[in-house]
Write a structure and sequence with these properties.
Elements: H1 3-18, E1 22-27, H2 35-44, H3 61-68, E2 73-80, H4 94-113, E3 120-122, H5 162-168, E4 178-181, E5 184-187, E6 192-199
Antiparallel strand pairs: 1-2, 2-6, 3-6, 4-5
Helix pairs in contact: 1-4
Length: 200
């Protein structure tokens, strides 16, 4: 890595740290995609088809694999905990969703301005830019998204194995458990949000 590139990477790492997160540089070839990840979205998540940042609107694992071939380097990013107050109806606060998605939007812009012209981000959580997503409406098309400039899929939505990515850098991810309460569920431990920025 050249001195110039090292300096640009440092600027990105500093930005993430200022926003409350941490990140490590990883080879893009170490990022694993798998069909089972998308199946978890289809059969394990009630958000399927309810946001344009979720399947079936997002790239398939095979499409993501092809995109990853165009990159050598990526930043794996994590934020621990929640900056807002989760509720039984929502395991992660709207404030946290908006925060990490805004950080990724600004980070991608910063990377582009620093010369990483192919940069592409995968954010965390279901998209939180709009109060109502037209993806829920009959006949919805991805072009109906009102925030396509900012909206990005999560790693999982694009078929990326987040657990494998974290394991490759020595980050342990605990399986989240919940306790049922009167109005829904509450997390038994703080959530970790993991995101990815492809750089080239």
């Amino acid at each position: 890595m050249s001195t110039d590139e090292s300096g640009r990477i440092t600027a990105l790492l500093d930005f993430i740290k200022e926003k409350g997160g941490e990140a490590v540089l990883i080879p893009a070839q170490d990022i694993v995609t798998a069909e089972w990840v998308r199946q978890k979205c289809l059969f394990g998540c009630n958000g399927f088809g309810r946001r344009f940042s979720c399947p079936p609107y997002t790239p398939t694992p095979a499409e993501t694999r092809e995109v990853l071939k165009d990159y050598k380097t990526a930043l794996l990013i994590r934020f621990r905990g929640d900056i807002g107050e989760p509720s039984p109806e929502r395991l992660v606060s709207r404030e946290m969703t908006r925060h990490v998605q805004q950080v990724m939007f600004e980070l991608e812009q910063l990377a582009f301005s620093l010369g990483f012209y192919k940069t592409l981000g995968y954010t965390g959580h279901q998209c939180g830019w709009c109060a109502h997503c037209p993806a829920k409406d009959d006949g919805a098309k991805i072009t109906d998204c009102r925030n396509r400039r900012k909206m990005r899929p999560s790693m999982e939505a694009a078929g990326i194995d987040v657990y494998a990515a974290c394991a490759s850098v020595g980050w342990d991810l605990d399986i989240l458990t919940c306790t049922k309460v009167e109005d829904g569920y509450v997390l038994d431990s703080p959530m970790t949000t993991v995101m990815l920025l492809l750089l080239e």
